[in-house]
Amino acid sequence: MQDDADARSKNILTGAVGVRELNDHVLVLPAQGNALAVKTADGIVLVDSGSGRGMTAKMITCLREWSDLPVKAICYSHGHMGYNDGTADWLKHASERGDPAPELIGHANITRRFARYRETAGLQDTLNGMQFPQLKISTAGENQIDPTRTFDDRLVLGEGGDRIELLWAPSETDDVLALWLPGDGILYAGAAFPGTTLPNVGTPLRTQRFTIRWAETLDMLAGLNATVLIQEFGPIVEGEDAVRERLTITAEALRWLRREVVARMNRGMSDVEIIHDLDCPDALFDHTWMRERYGAISYLVRDIYREENGWWDRNPTSLHPAPPAAAQAAILSAITDPAAVIARARELAAGGEVQLALHVIDLLAQAPGDDEVLKEARQLKAELCHGRAKEVRPYVSKALYASSAKLLERGQTSWSKAS
Predict the structure, then answer these.
(1) Sheet (strand 228-231) strand order
(2) Angstrom distances, CA of residue 145 to CA of 34, 98, 167, 252
(3) How far apart are the first and last CA of the chain?
(4) Crossing angle for the helix pair 240-265 and 297-308, nearest 10 degrees?
(5) For residue range 32-48, what is the model confidence (pLDDT) as tens digits?
(6) Cα separation of 248 and 7, whole Å?
(7) How far apart are CA 179 and CA 135, in angstroms?
(8) What percentage of the chain reaches a pLDDT higher than 90?
(9) Is the pLDDT of residue 261 over 50?
């Protein structure tokens, strides 16, 4: 079902499980994604602290209804904002109880990610405003507390029945942590396996995520032979065969895409040409966990393409471009009948060709100036963006169309805060 971006933004980052006790010492908690609590003889090991405020307060309440043991460690599933913005709330909770401060554990790459987010805080805030237009996300780095303990490949906590293995699982980010309970056969895959969407490699606003690296991580996780899989957002998967199926098919699909994209690159095709040439096999892609709900095939193609290509789009005009305003003004000067452009765009949209209509209206909509015809063009482009948002499946695309429409409705064509 094609629901709109506003509705989806309300629950896109919410775990699917809620509160669920898997056994007497493992509890799934509601957070930004599915969080986890594991009882040990020394206290509770928690994965993710939530986004803070109401979400983290709910996590604390749910945990305390289950156990009064102190939280001895908070493990960061990965370094994206929101997943552990509530760490300070947990530290305060421990202090109020008179408990020692929990150890904060993450992969070594998290400290570098947090530093990068602080350096690029303005950019990150802009990107979040584009991608999550209906959510209030805290300023980049504002609530992120560096881990007090890091590891590279594997970290073992406890021993015997309390043994917990923290595994480096590079996938969506290079700092993803998976938690493995060998005594229970329970695997917390976190961001390495979203569960409700095919892997979101190549998402439009973010850095590269490297398709084969993610596939290799899935192979590693499949080799654990887990009987229970806790996904980042999806429901819990039970049964060794079911767990293996999800992990191995996803890895195989990623490798299939790499092979097919490379074959077409070797024939000189561009990323856009490849996107429209692929025919993905149902055996690999027609599964509930491989839907284009957040990730998308076209995103994956572009990320693979970026691994082997530079930024040039093969159009010589873009090699050394003129300033955007000057270029758009020159294009406008060549159009003798702007009203005809608007009419053609409307005609295409009315015929169901909204994407083609966007290509046409850009002849006018990006041009500088406040002429009435340009205002009309921007308004039409905003309407087309809203229409396109209803057509596409991935949440990120829906959100970017919606946030772009709002920008145009404000009379702007650039995200620059100086514009």
Answers:
(1) 154-157, 164-168, 177-181, 186-190, 228-231, 237-238
(2) 20, 21, 21, 36
(3) 37
(4) 50
(5) 999 999 999 999 999 99
(6) 32
(7) 29
(8) 92
(9) yes
Which token pair is 380?
Answer: 């039409």
Structural domains for the chain:
5-162 (3.60.15.10), 193-316 (no CATH), 321-409 (1.25.40.880)
Identify the burial level of 263 via C-beta atoms within 10 angstroms of its C-beta, where 0-12 means exposed, 13-18 middle and 19 or more buried: exposed
Residue range 56-77, pLDDT digits in tens: 999 999 999 999 999 999 999 9
Q: Tokens 């294009």 identify what position?
A: 331
Residue 313 Cα to chain centre, angstroms? 25
Residue 398 corresponds to which tokens in the numbers above?
């829906």
73 contacts: CB under 8 Å, gap ≥ 6: 43, 44, 45, 46, 102, 103, 104, 105, 157
**Phi/psi of residue 231, nearest 5 degrees:** -85, 165
Q: Name the maximum alpha-carbon separation found in the chain.
A: 79
Q: Which residues contact 351 (CB under 8 A, 6 or more apart)?
A: none
* Residue range 130-138: mean pLDDT, rounded: 83
Q: Do residues 405 and 382 make contact, with C-beta atoms less than 8 angstroms apart?
A: yes
Q: How far is CA 52 from CA 67, 83, 218, 287, in A?
A: 21, 9, 30, 34
Taking the model in full, what pTM does it have?
0.93
- What would the pLDDT profile of 9-27 be if each residue is shown by its tens digit? 446 666 768 899 999 999 9
Residue in the structure block whose two tokens are 């098919």? 249
Q: Say how far residue 257 (Cα) sits from the centre of its chain.
A: 19
Instruction: Note the pLDDT tens digit of each residue in 292-309.
Output: 999 999 999 999 999 999
